[in-house]
Amino acid sequence: MSLSKEETRKVAGLARLRMNDEELERLAPQLSNIIGFVEQLSELNTDNVEPLANVVDITLPLREDIVTDGNCADLVLANAPEETQGYFVVPKVVE
């Protein structure tokens, strides 16, 4: 598939790229080559190929999904310029 200059301009616009006519002329054949390669890939027979999530056949250890507060309120409040009763003190912004 070969892309015209206008099609290349549209692709560049979708990618939010601003290009002049010279750049579009240079880019059109490159994009056509990329699209040609993707078309070649779509011709491959992948009927007996299982989906691949990881190239290494390992299972990652999982932790239990337990909601906690982290038990580090003191460490967090140590960064506060001012705190009281376990809360950050911030200036009043609404009257």
Write the layout of secondary structure elements.
Blueprint lengths: L4 H10 L6 H22 L30 H5 L5 E2 L2 E2 L7
Concise synopsis of the structure shown:
The protein has 95 residues and is mainly α. The chain is built from 3 helices and 2 strands, in the order αααββ.
Description:
There is one protein chain. This protein has 95 residues and is mainly alpha-helical. It is 39% helix and 4% strand. The protein has a domain at 5-42: Histone, subunit A. A two-stranded antiparallel sheet has the order 1-2. A hairpin with a 2-residue loop joins strand 1 and strand 2 (87-88).
Tell me the helix content.
25-40%
Low-confidence stretches at least 5 residues in length (pLDDT < 50)?
none
* CATH fold-level name of the domain at 5-42: Histone, subunit A
Q: What's the alpha carbon Rg, rounded to whole Å?
A: 28 Å
Largest sheet: 2 strands, antiparallel
The total of helices stands at 3
The oligomeric state of the chains shown is single chain
Strand order of the largest sheet: 1-2
Number of strands: 2
Report strand %.
under 5%
User: Order of SSEs, N→C?
Assistant: HHHEE
CATH class of the domain at 5-42: Mainly Alpha
Q: Strand pairing plus helix content: what structural class?
A: mainly alpha
Mean pLDDT: 88
Described by the principal axes of the CA atoms, the overall outline is: flat
Please describe the structure with a list of short key phrases separated by commas or semicolons.
two-stranded antiparallel sheet, Histone, subunit A, 3 helices, 2 strands
